[in-house]
Amino acid sequence: MVYFIGAGPGDVDLITVKGRKIIEKADVVIYAGSLVSKEHMEFCKVGVELYNSAHMTLEEVLSVIEKAEKEGKVTVRLHTGDPSIYGAIKEQMDELYKKNIEFEVIPGVSSFTAAASAIKREFTLPGVSQTVILTRIEGRTPVPENEDIEKLAALGASMAIFLSVGMIDKVVEKLKRGYKRNVPVAVVERASWEDERIVMGTLEDIGDKVKKMGITKCAQILVGDFIDSSYSKSLLYDKNFTHMFREGKKK
């Protein structure tokens, strides 16, 4: 049996209880060594086989999984954050389907939610934004033309931009053209790690601030009015609002 598990954004305790329990019984763990905290390995049982996938190709990863499966072992494929977001798991799962190897995906805490927690903000504020866009700028991995950051920014929704801080000037220029105004921006480097760093600003100054701090990778770029704006309170807790669990008070 193979388990794809989201290890969370960094903090070793930001993994699900289910994910931790499976790691404790795993015979083989293939982990994304460049991003996953090595503290997770402290919960593995004695004799576990550990593989750092940062040094492996897709074929090598699949070879380890296939060998473990033939030996009746439990394999964990440990990914950073949540494996369904920029996790490159589809190509692995497709091969397991072909080989009739059973697997399960265990979700995890994503870096974009960890970043929002770091700056103590809510993406979906009533009267401000009810939509969160997760995206990235094009680099060596292309982005579909209709998903260009400039076009997405034109919607005015809250945004969390992955894998793009190394091209901060390009990101800012596209966002300026899309939002067509100066909006708040937060850059969170290594969200939830002990060396986490936060930079707050706007589209006008965030580029200079990020470069001054030398942030070039492992950072979320959060953009939108949700970072700093007035908003409407939720109806859910309004004393005059009636729902299936509570009768609202008459005005």
Automatic annotation (TrEMBL):
<dbReference type="InterPro" id="IPR003043">
    <property type="entry name" value="Uropor_MeTrfase_CS"/>
</dbReference>
<dbReference type="InterPro" id="IPR000878">
    <property type="entry name" value="4pyrrol_Mease"/>
</dbReference>
<dbReference type="InterPro" id="IPR014776">
    <property type="entry name" value="4pyrrole_Mease_sub2"/>
</dbReference>
<dbReference type="InterPro" id="IPR035996">
    <property type="entry name" value="4pyrrol_Methylase_sf"/>
</dbReference>
<protein>
    <submittedName>
        <fullName>Cobalt-precorrin-4 C(11)-methyltransferase</fullName>
        <ecNumber>2.1.1.271</ecNumber>
    </submittedName>
</protein>
<dbReference type="InterPro" id="IPR006362">
    <property type="entry name" value="Cbl_synth_CobM/CibF"/>
</dbReference>
<keyword id="KW-0489">Methyltransferase</keyword>
<comment type="similarity">
    <text>Belongs to the precorrin methyltransferase family.</text>
</comment>
<dbReference type="Pfam" id="PF00590">
    <property type="entry name" value="TP_methylase"/>
</dbReference>
<dbReference type="GO" id="GO:0046026">
    <property type="term" value="F:precorrin-4 C11-methyltransferase activity"/>
</dbReference>
<dbReference type="GO" id="GO:0032259">
    <property type="term" value="P:methylation"/>
</dbReference>
<keyword id="KW-0808">Transferase</keyword>
<dbReference type="InterPro" id="IPR014777">
    <property type="entry name" value="4pyrrole_Mease_sub1"/>
</dbReference>
<comment type="pathway">
    <text>Cofactor biosynthesis; adenosylcobalamin biosynthesis.</text>
</comment>
<dbReference type="InterPro" id="IPR050161">
    <property type="entry name" value="Siro_Cobalamin_biosynth"/>
</dbReference>
<dbReference type="GO" id="GO:0009236">
    <property type="term" value="P:cobalamin biosynthetic process"/>
</dbReference>
<keyword id="KW-0169">Cobalamin biosynthesis</keyword>
<keyword id="KW-0949">S-adenosyl-L-methionine</keyword>
